[in-house]
């Protein structure tokens, strides 16, 4: 199959994926304990009021009709009205989504910026002191819980030195970066440790590959061998790892946003669960799932670009 | 040796030791080789006899756990002692190497054309268009059809034989004077093997290129090489013209090797496998390493290493029994 055909096929795969996500979110919302109507009206509402609201929300229809309406609304971007905010769910999320995307995006950049060069240094100096040093530092990053690292960074750099704000979100690119740097670093550390370990291992593996010996026998310079032959082959498995980590990065954002009081999707999710804001939870779950599967899509496309053997 | 021209490659007392978790392994234990311009030398021996390690040691391709001593003189300059930068200029440019498994020796994610062009970039002054033209020429030269279209192809898109041809094309990019071929046909099926050997022979003749052909296949050596060196337990035990060595071996190991192969030794003689296993190389060996498996072994064989001595013009062997072998070789 041609490369274009493969990419088209991969893009089409996203349709059933999204449909399945819709089913899961829809079923999940109906499995949650508690009744949205009583959550909205409180325990002491009259039966008449309850029935009226049930009718309004379409809960009196069959489950299939409900699903059809849910899908139709979801496609139009209508997820109903938030119980907690009393405004359309979409307008709340529209404010919060960019914050979380900026946070996780920045965290990914920081993680890659730290891990890729250091993994190379460690791999090229395997079992010598630079390798031991880098591995032990990252080991600490990997084994410390996200909220703990967050609190320490907050105490040291925000409370003591006052270099960074204690929380919140800024306006304008520079201000946003300044606000997001500490939470992004917090989120990036364990991610960087995972990338570093994986990439170090694949650098070692690639360095032992015969094609590196052959490249040396050809008289290529060390720089060409490392950049053209080693880096690219080593990155192939790391790209997959980074993509697969999109989900846990969003999970980590829930904690980080809470610690740093960042007004993103993660904190919104926590607040909504406490408030039993079902339409909001439903919409958040759906959108996070969509974001994750888009991340997988990008991963696959990058992998196709890096590794011609995938396109078979 | 006296009538032979000045060698371009001369390996003297080459020793390679590997540091392993179970101690030191003497993979190559005092190898001597000499190669004249345009010469074709076969280097034969069992797996683990040090053939491939010898080749890699000459170009200093071994990993950091290997310690190499001795000399490998290329036109008088010791490859083992020169700075890495000088050596890099010789690798690929004057001495090229091809490997046993083209699938693992070629980078799987880089098009063949680029893998040829990077060699040209390292060793020639050609511009991008010139490199492309030369790459097409090279693929043509090694017999890859529709060369221009194959430049963009990746190794996995080539068949086994075509991949080996592509690797040869890469090695020949800068028109080297010596090709080190490490079992280039072992991974291929027999008909393709024959094509590749003929190709290598034709190229070495056309380009005036010397070749060291490492193989465990005596038939391959008989077909392609003028001279042969037989290795056992990290040492060269016999060296000489192929027709001499294969008809009147000077070393008991060569003799045993020929008898263990069909059509190798005396006509219609039964095949005789060599009993036992090669010695372990993680401890010093006393005497001749072949002694425990040798049918001709005598008292001094296990105690005193035989010297490398002439047995016929151009043929030398390190064996106490070489004169007794010669008598036996004459069919009754």
TrEMBL record, chain A:
The keyword Magnesium does not apply. Keywords: Cell membrane, Membrane, Transmembrane, Transmembrane helix, Transport. GO terms for cellular component: plasma membrane. Residues 97-299 form the ABC transmembrane type-1 domain. InterPro entries: BPD_transp_1_N, MetI-like, MetI-like_sf. It is a multi-pass membrane protein. Its main location: membrane. GO terms for biological process: transmembrane transport. It is found in: Cell membrane. Pfam families: BPD_transp_1, BPD_transp_1_N. The keyword Zinc-finger does not apply. The chain crosses the membrane at residues 12-32, 101-124, 145-164, 176-195, 230-260, 280-302. PANTHER family: DIPEPTIDE TRANSPORT SYSTEM PERMEASE PROTEIN DPPB-RELATED. Belongs to the binding-protein-dependent transport system permease family. This is ABC transporter permease. It comes from Alsobacter soli.
UniProtKB/TrEMBL annotation, chain B:
Keywords: ATP-binding, Cell membrane, Membrane, Nucleotide-binding, Transport. InterPro entries: AAA+_ATPase, ABC_Ni/Peptide_Import, ABC_transporter-like_ATP-bd, ABC_transporter-like_CS, Oligopep_ABC_C, P-loop_NTPase. It is a peripheral membrane protein. It is found in: Cell inner membrane. GO terms for biological process: peptide transport; transmembrane transport. Pfam families: ABC_tran, oligo_HPY. The keyword Transport applies. Belongs to the ABC transporter superfamily. This is Methionine ABC transporter ATP-binding protein. The lineage of its organism: Bacteria, Pseudomonadati, Pseudomonadota, Alphaproteobacteria, Hyphomicrobiales.
């Amino acid at each position: 199959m041609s490369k274009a055909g493969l990419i088209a096929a991969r893009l089409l795969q996203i349709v059933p994926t999204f449909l399945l996500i819709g089913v899961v979110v829809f079923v999940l919302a109906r499995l949650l304990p508690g009744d949205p109507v009583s959550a909205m009206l409180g325990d002491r509402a009259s039966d008449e009021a309850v029935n009226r609201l049930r009718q309004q929300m379409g809960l009196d229809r069959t489950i299939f009709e409900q699903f059809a309406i849910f899908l139709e609304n979801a496609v139009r971007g209508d997820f109903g009205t938030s119980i907690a905010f009393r405004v359309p769910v979409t307008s709340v999320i529209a404010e919060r989504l960019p914050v979380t995307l900026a946070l996780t995006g920045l965290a990914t950049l920081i993680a890659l910026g730290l891990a890729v060069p250091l993994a190379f240094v460690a791999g090229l100096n395997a079992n010598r002191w630079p390798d031991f040093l880098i591995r032990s530092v990252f080991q600490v990053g990997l084994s410390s819980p996200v909220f703990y690292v967050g609190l320490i960074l907050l105490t040291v750099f925000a409370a003591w030195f006052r270099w960074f704000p204690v929380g919140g979100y800024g306006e304008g690119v520079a201000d946003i970066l300044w606000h997001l740097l500490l939470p992004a670093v917090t989120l990036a550390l364990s991610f960087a440790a995972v990338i570093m370990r994986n990439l170090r291992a694949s650098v070692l593996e690639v360095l032992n590959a015969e094609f590196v010996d052959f490249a040396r026998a050809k008289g290529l310079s060390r720089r060409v061998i490392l950049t053209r032959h080693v880096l690219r082959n080593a990155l192939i498995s790391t790209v997959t790892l980074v993509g697969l980590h999109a989900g846990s990065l969003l999970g980590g954002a829930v904690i980080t946003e809470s610690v740093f009081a960042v007004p993103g999707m993660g904190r919104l999710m926590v607040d909504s669960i406490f408030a039993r804001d079902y339409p909001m939870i439903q919409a958040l779950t759906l959108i996070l799932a969509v974001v994750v599967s888009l991340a997988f899509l990008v991963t696959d496309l990058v992998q196709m670009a890096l590794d011609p053997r995938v396109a078979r | 040796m006296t009538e032979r021209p000045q060698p371009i490659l001369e390996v003297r007392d080459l020793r390679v030791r590997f540091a392993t978790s179970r101690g030191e392994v003497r993979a190559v234990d005092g190898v001597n080789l000499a190669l004249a311009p345009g010469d074709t030398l076969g280097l034969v021996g069992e797996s683990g006899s040090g053939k491939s390690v010898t080749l890699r040691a000459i170009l200093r391709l071994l990993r950091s756990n290997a310690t190499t001593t001795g000399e490998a003189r290329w036109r008088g300059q010791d490859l083992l002692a020169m700075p890495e930068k000088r050596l890099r200029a010789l690798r690929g440019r004057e001495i090229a190497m091809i490997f046993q498994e083209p699938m693992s020796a070629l980078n799987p994610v880089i098009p063949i054309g680029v893998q040829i062009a990077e060699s040209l970039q390292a060793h020639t002054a050609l511009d991008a268009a010139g490199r492309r033209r030369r790459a097409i020429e090279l693929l043509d030269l090694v017999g890859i059809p529709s060369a221009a279209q194959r430049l963009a192809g990746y190794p996995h898109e080539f068949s086994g034989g075509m991949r080996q041809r592509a690797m040869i094309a890469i090695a020949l990019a800068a028109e080297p004077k010596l090709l080190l071929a490490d079992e280039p046909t072992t991974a291929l099926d027999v008909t393709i093997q024959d094509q590749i050997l003929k190709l290598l022979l034709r190229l070495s003749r056309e380009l005036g290129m010397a070749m060291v052909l490492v193989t465990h296949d005596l038939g391959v050596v008989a077909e392609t090489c003028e001279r042969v060196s037989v290795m056992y337990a990290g040492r060269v035990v016999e060296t000489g013209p192929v027709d001499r060595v294969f008809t009147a071996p000077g070393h008991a190991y060569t003799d045993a090797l020929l008898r263990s192969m069909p059509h190798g030794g005396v006509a219609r003689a039964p095949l005789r496998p060599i009993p036992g296993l090669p010695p372990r190389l993680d401890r010093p060996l006393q005497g001749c390493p072949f002694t425990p498996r040798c049918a001709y072994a005598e008292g001094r064989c296990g105690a005193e290493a035989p010297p490398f001595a002439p047995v016929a013009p151009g043929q030398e062997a390190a064996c106490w029994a070489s004169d007794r072998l010669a008598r036996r070789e004459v069919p009754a």
